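As the next step, I selected for study a record pairing a protein sequence with its backbone structure tokens, which the following lines show:
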Amino acid sequence: MRTHSLNLSSVNSGSAIPHPGANPASTDGLISELVYSEDQCNIAQCLLLPLLQQLCHQSRWQLWLTPHQKLSRDWLRHSGLPLDKIMQVSRSGCITTVDSMIKALQTGNYSVVLGWFAEEISPSDRERLEQAAHSGRALGLIMRSEVSVFPLSKPLNGLRIQSSLYH
């Protein structure tokens, strides 16, 4: 049995994490990393989905910067996420996921920007993402598969979840 933990790193010493019932739009910006495992129970339904559902109440969009897989419209529909507030962009070779996340976070148009990464990001990239999240008052989620995690390395902020969001 594995232990799952969620440690959030805030740009503004914890004030960016809204308390239950608070308006997520009042956040100062936040970057967190979720390390997921394909072979574990579906924790995404328990932890990630309620967060995304809460953020859908904002007037802003959700941006998913995904690998080459396409989001399942059936999963989105059954999960209660509004299709008209979610935008998916598949990875492009001309711009990195970090740069895409930074640009999207800075605009302030998105309540959350999810980016999938094959490996850990550098501390300087993390700092750039934190500044962008703070600037756009948005949540940035770094999504990484457990297979890309090196045995001696731990995520700075992590949650292990199963990803069945794709078809």
User: Anything to note?
Assistant: The radius of gyration is 15 Å. The chain has four helices and six strands.
